[in-house]
Design brief:
By secondary structure, the chain is of the alpha+beta class. It folds into 2 domains: 155 residues, Jelly Rolls (Sandwich); 98 residues, Orthogonal Bundle (Arc Repressor Mutant, subunit A). The strands form 2 sheets. A 5-stranded antiparallel sheet has the order 1-8-3-6-9. Strands 2-7-4-5 form a 4-stranded antiparallel sheet, with no helix packed on it. The longest helix is centred in the middle third of the chain and has 19 residues.
Length: 261
Amino acid sequence: MNANPAQLLISVPFGRTSESVNSTRYFWDNNHRNEEPFVILQWTMEGSGEFVLQGKTWSLSPGYAFIAIQPEASSYYFPKQAAEPWKFAWLNFYGAFGVSLMREFRKAFGPVAALPLQSVAAGMFLSLAAMGETRDFPDSYEVSSACYAFLMEWSRLLTRPAHQDRDRVDMAMTLCRSRFREPLGIKELAAETGLTREHLTRIFTARAGVSPGRYLRNLRVAAARQMLKGQAITLKETALRCGFSSVRSLNHALAEDDRGV
């Protein structure tokens, strides 16, 4: 039996650590791009895009990556309803072994999977994308090893959802406590934790007993009451210092708090 070690290699010939688009002309059809099978991993950093596979559409919010395997009936694009540019990083995997690995990975975790912005796996992804961007390739075996290490770290993250959810709720709570005086909202919290707004709200509420929006409001109200107690300070100044957009929103929050709403 004649073994071919080259069959076990994974290459990353193309990649980009940061790219931004804001036009609906950005559209890729993966069914007519290349006869040789290869993998595209594209990871959202800001804004959002959409990925379609076999008629199903996924929204690509910050901290999520799609896996496309050429050629196939899939596409990705900048959506018409997007309110801000889509910023992302991407890389390609070439080689029969890499394609096979990603097919199995996609079967296990789906074509769109969480890759949190501050995770170890995200840092490994960017390092691989940088290889394709600069074309500064180390030994081919070293590249393959780095690709496999990234996939194993990403797999570890995705197979420990309960632990990861607790970590992300803790992260969101810490962000709320340290930055509630800023115009911080659920959108920003979701981006920082690498979750969708819906998933963050669900796991945060289950853990804290209140939604992240209510948690922020409670912190701001408590700070405002303390500031107003015995101090010669205007309502406008209090609102600005405690994260409220206006005196009206401060008064509304104080009234709701008095009613126990």
